[in-house]
């Protein structure tokens, strides 16, 4: 089970339907949905040992609209 920060709930929530993705910079991330409200969440796993970098990584487009089903 993976947890991430939901911008809609404004707290940490369980990520459902999580899919591992490798970003262009080589970092591993999990893309999924908030178990509570269904908002798309993106958790970066790239940091080893748990640095504080992931906490500041906020997606630029979080205007409250639902994400489009890509692919
Ligand atoms: Zn949520």
User: What fraction of the residues are assigned to beta strands by DSSP?
Assistant: 35-45%
The second-level CATH architecture of one domain is: Single Sheet
> Briefly, what CATH class of one domain?
Mainly Beta
Mean pLDDT: 80
In the sheet with the most strands, the strands line up as 1-2-3-4
Principal-axis shape equals globular
Q: State the end-to-end CA separation.
A: 24 Å
Helix content estimate:
under 10%
Radius of gyration: 12 Å
Q: Which fold does the CATH topology of one domain refer to?
A: N-terminal domain of TfIIb
Q: What summary fits the major beta sheet?
A: 4 strands, antiparallel
Going by helix content, strand content and strand pairing, the class is mainly beta
Taking pLDDT < 50 over at least 5 consecutive residues as the criterion, the unreliable ranges are 49-54
Query: How many extended strands?
Result: 4
Sketch the topology as an H/E string, one letter per element.
EEEEH
